[in-house]
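Our preliminary data section would be incomplete without showing what the modeling component actually yields. Below, a chain of 257 amino acids is followed by its predicted structure, encoded as tokens that our downstream tools consume directly.
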Amino acid sequence: MLPNDRNTIRQHARQNQNQITNQTARRAVHRLKAGRLNSSSNNNKMSKADPISLSFHDSCLRMSDVQLLHGPRWLNDQILSFYYEYLSHAKYKNNNDVYFIAPEVTQCMKYMDESELEMIFGEHNAVDKPFIFFALNDNGTAEAGGTHWSLLVLSRPEKTFYHFDSSGNNNLGVAMELMNRVKELLGVRQAKFRSMRCLQQANGYDCGIHVICMTDHIADYINRYEVIEGLPPLHIDTVKAKRAELLKLILSLGGKD
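Predicted structure:
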């Protein structure tokens, strides 16, 4: 995410349909992005009690975030944001066909007006990206929160938004609402919506891991075949191994466990 993205988000986040002051908007998005809202003195105390494990491009993981990977724990947006930054700036840095939108940006897109969305998409040439990934949360406010993650992917070649939900259709309404907000701005007004069968989670906390694994799985597939149709099922062993793989990745990038 570019610095201009952060400025736009901090200035223009909305709480549902209510108008809020710029100061409150910045604080609301800070809570989405950092998972906490504190005064500067409390931030200093928090930094000592919960030191930074890894800073990677526009993501910042604290030790408490990394501990979530030891499980069984629900993953917060910091973990997903880190992984989307890794995909954007490392694994797929030379692939201009994919655009990974971090969860805090996706969340704020629910409350941006059309001009603000155009600015975000314009800075990333989103209208020219064949594949766009949205890490989607069921949170219905501009505050930190939510209980479930799912994945929405635009395939421009197939003129389709594909939705992958590891808990049935839990996020179906949220996914369709986001699609309807962005499809015209992305130049795919006639795009279809497809709710896809996918591997289902066996517990109440692995939705974030499923989103990360599905993002990997789909990105690898489209890198080879340039479509999503025909995507094979995700294997449960991939999900089981992913927490340990993420911990190793964080350590390999200089992070602390």
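The longest helix spans residues 207-225. The beta strands are 52-56, 59-62, 98-101, 131-137, 149-155, 160-164, 192-196. Preliminary results of this kind motivate Aim 1 of the renewal.
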